[in-house]
Amino acid sequence: MYILGLSCYYHDASAALLKDGVIVAAAEEERFTRKKHDTSFPINAVNYCLKTQNITIKDISYIGFYEKPFLKFERVLSQHLEMFPFSFKTFISSLPSWLNEKLRIPKTIKKKLGYTGDILFIEHHLAHAASSFLVSPFKKAAILTTDGVGEWTTTSLGIAEDNEISLLKDIRFPHSLGLLYSTITAYLGFSVNNSEYKVMGMAPYGTMDRQKNLYYQKLRQVIDIKEDGSYKLDMNYFIFHYADRMPSKKLCKLLDGPIRKPESEITKRHKEVAAALQLILEEVLTKILDHLYDITQTPNLVLAGGVALNCVYNGKILQNTRFKNIWIQPNASDGGTSIGAASYVYHTILGNPRNFIQKSAYLGPEFTNEEIKQFLDINKIKCTEFKDEKELIKATAKLIYESQIVGWFQGRMEWGPRALGSRSILSNPADVNMQEILNLKVKHREKFRPFAPVVCEDDALKYFDCDNPIPEAADFMLMVYPIKEKWREKIPAVTHVDGSGRLQTIRRFQNKLYYDLIKEFGKLSGIPILINTSFNIRGEPIVCTPYDAYKCMMGTGIDYMIIGNFLVRRNENTKDIWDSEKYAKD
Length: 586
Fold this sequence. Notes:
Layout: E1 2-7, E2 14-19, E3 22-28, H1 30-33, H2 43-52, E4 60-65, H3 69-83, H4 88-102, H5 105-113, E5 118-121, H6 124-133, E6 140-146, E7 153-161, E8 164-172, H7 177-187, H8 196-202, H9 214-219, E9 223-225, E10 231-233, H10 249-254, H11 268-296, E11 300-304, H12 311-314, H13 317-320, E12 325-328, H14 337-349, H15 369-378, E13 384-385, H16 389-401, E14 406-409, E15 423-427, H17 434-442, E16 452-456, H18 460-463, E17 479-482, H19 485-488, E18 500-506, H20 512-525, E19 529-534, H21 546-554, E20 560-563, E21 566-569
Parallel strand pairs: 1-4, 4-5, 6-11, 11-12, 14-20, 16-18
Antiparallel strand pairs: 1-2, 2-3, 6-7, 7-8, 9-10, 13-21, 14-15, 15-19, 16-19, 17-18, 20-21
Helix pairs in contact: 3-4, 6-14, 7-11, 16-20
């Protein structure tokens, strides 16, 4: 039985395909359209999923959709009526998308896909919960989902066992940790639903002490936090519930200045505000998790929702709460809800027992060596072919050891926002200049941004103060841990200002080639750790196809690309290639 899950029309549209309860394919629409956080109907992602199984839409038994549009529209109408006339402009501008797209999901699905079967609509936070628990290793677990807003819910607490999920409590719009974080993201001059992680990365440059951070005291005025973690925002400081922007004049006054203009200087005040926001988020979440443990009495915890991508806090959960085990959906934001919708249909609605644990995130498109060679030949791209994997690994490790920047394009594309060794840029963490080189010459992004270390799981405890055993969430780059002090000066390019690293662990069964490369680099350098950052530049999605990868390399300071069994040198080639993907079909 095939179940198709869909998510679209808000941000990070995606599709996921289950075969008899097993996730066989999943991808976000942005990877195909090249529009970051693409919201449109995920037709390309659907076609990819079907193609992996050599099936058509007629083979799909059910489609699960990640929210209930009419319930969400009820909330939008309620907002408008409550805040009229202030909300009128925003409501009128949003109305066409509701009338033409969001309220016509069944008709759209039937028209675009030719589908005639049943479509089941899953409440948004239930889809989040299902995306994490139903593919987790736990038979029973407590659940926390936190994001901007679903239909009405912004935070939910629950418990699940076998294939049944019960959401016990929730907090509703407009009170939202996710929207608080997004409001301050906008205040700091970054884009909402895209750059919250930049604020998280900026926070350690400020004062991470509640008693000493002036802006923590100021921001605490806008949120009332109870001992059980429930909270309310003081809506006098916010306008997101009726306007098309987020920070209010009153909030700007509270924080001692106007909204930062994008690309302008980041001041000490901005860093203090970022730190204050992270402190408040951690304070609220810890209280929520303490209460969640009290009402569930289970050692296992699963997380989903966009706030679950806050890997700084994730790395503190097992130390600061009574939970003993944790699992987080690798695509915790809205993109991951397509897996949740499909899994909920198969396991909970249809009652099929769980038979799958998500142990990796390699669910996207892959390209054979023959397809890659065809692309290289058609576009007259000079390259060298490796005789075998051993030669490829040795050559690549040597290039990285020599501080060359390597684009790494191998196997199936990752699911979620993190590059995990299939569509990655790899480089030398021991090079003191590498962070600045990558930020300015390759990624074209803010110079304060840290880079992630990747280490084989069996070496991680030597270099990082990790939870032990290391949670599988670290495999998905969802945990930040302190780097042990003796190693910080030896791997400066992945050591953040507070001595931490956004760790990715890799287990050999997940990605043999990647694992062996890290080990080979360790033989040369004495430290089996690489810089791993996503194969893209600022403002673009992670590369999907050979064309995307080559275009990215030639537009940046990437020195070499290892694509399949081929080595491409940037200084031997030109930017001029066909702007076409037809090579894979010819």
